[in-house]
Amino acid sequence: MRKLTFKSRILSLAVLCGLTLALASCTNEDIAQNGNQTDNEKNLTIFSTGETPATRTSMESNGIFYWEAGDKIWVKDDNGTWQQSSNSPTNRTASFKFKVPGKFTKGSTYKVYYPGQNGSQNQVTIAASQSQTEPNTTTHFGTSGDCGIADAAWSNIENGFTFTLDHKASYLLFLLRASNFSLYDCYLTKIEVISDNDIASTYTLDQTSGKLIGGGSGNQIVLTTKNPNPGTANYNGFPLNNRITSAATNGAYMVIKPGTHNLKVRYWVKDIATGTEGYITKILGSKNYDQNKYYNITANLDINNYSGNNYYMWDAQKPYWYGYEWYHLQNGWQPILPNGKTGTGTSTSAFYPKSKTTDPLRWYNGTFPGYHKSNSATTTLFQTLPNANELSWYTMKGDPHWDDDILWTTMGHLYKGGMWLKKKSVLQSEGNYNTERSADGVTDLRITYKYYNNVASFSPLSATEINKYFFLPTLGGYTGSMFFGTGVYGYYWSSSAFSEESGHEAYALQITRGEVYVYQNGGRGTGMIVQAFE
């Protein structure tokens, strides 16, 4: 996390595109002002801000500050009455002459208050709901809770009072990257920050301390990172297709109350093709966030990625899509989106294995030694898998826990959901594991069929418990040319064929939301996952 200081007085940060933080200069020197000159304006006093380009301070990041359309200031006049500027910028400007009603004396100094566009007088509201419609811009600061105080003194040159605003909020700049290319078609939809104390509420700009004072109960801020208008560039959110941090790609800014906070951040991401949306959590820990400063918060949105090359027919020598793998990016090869989804990567393909004659390496082992005779896998890979008896122990004694929220990717797309089961070593230590007998202690599933299923718990595992478990995602499978069930079902081959059917079925573990069972009707020609269990 990198801390930088606001050295200027303008209220919103216009950040230039680029991968590094660099100095920038202003390109718009026009002063925009509402209203026409009338006799009524003779009773207005000028309060101006902004220096010439040569002396104006640039940010250390790669941007500068501006006033935005709708910004107004508040000043107490000689009678102690709050006065609001009668005019405001009509567009972004580096300097501006505010016109303030009331009585003011040239030799006096006045406190100028900027309470943001949602505040009034010296009352500031740091919003719990903030919205940024494009990357790398802070035009939303005024409505999010940006605020400041300044001392205004008379200037004969300006024929009015001049001031330099001192910002009183803290600012977070989120810089995200995705080293996992499977997020490249995903979008950042919002950032949720949860604190151990208040970071969003209504506060007072205190002229004595020069700080925001007051407390509140708002310990959560949600920054939406989408443009609400259909058809716009960021309607789906900010892209995540960068492997190094890039403010121009997805830089997101949040206003928070200064202070020492223990922050937890949830980055919400969405895959438009699959419709999956969920969050990735990062813990920042306790840190002091000073007023008038901003902090770079970088995050690698790394989540578990599962290979698309682990789908096999039962006991086949090569994967289901061997020679036609999805990563070759050839149209009509391995489908990467489940049936019913649309997008890049069809749900079906003509290159699936069709017979032992045409596709001997990808075809299943169809041997059948006879009814009620053990028939185990012969390939080295399938021999590493648990047999049918072992699957029953995972099912009945594995204390299955379903996880609705865990995110994972496969073949360039985002999904969530899966099952936690106790590891083999834990089952063995508890006396709940046997390769020769199933979970009833009697039946050998390799010879005699018995149905096993179990209902999963939905209670989340604690941090101390989870190390005893391993995770199985709902990776779906292939049948013929069709990809199906991803995000809904998981099918995991065993090393055991089904002995009560002549050569067409084998055992697998099936998981779905809230349930796990030993699946004996797994057609050997189905493309299911080959994975050694922990």
Automatic annotation (TrEMBL):
Keywords attached to this entry: Signal
Superkingdom in the source lineage: Bacteria
Residues spanning the signal sequence: 1-24
Name of the protein in its database record: Lipoprotein
Organism, as annotated: Prevotella histicola JCM 15637 = DNF00424
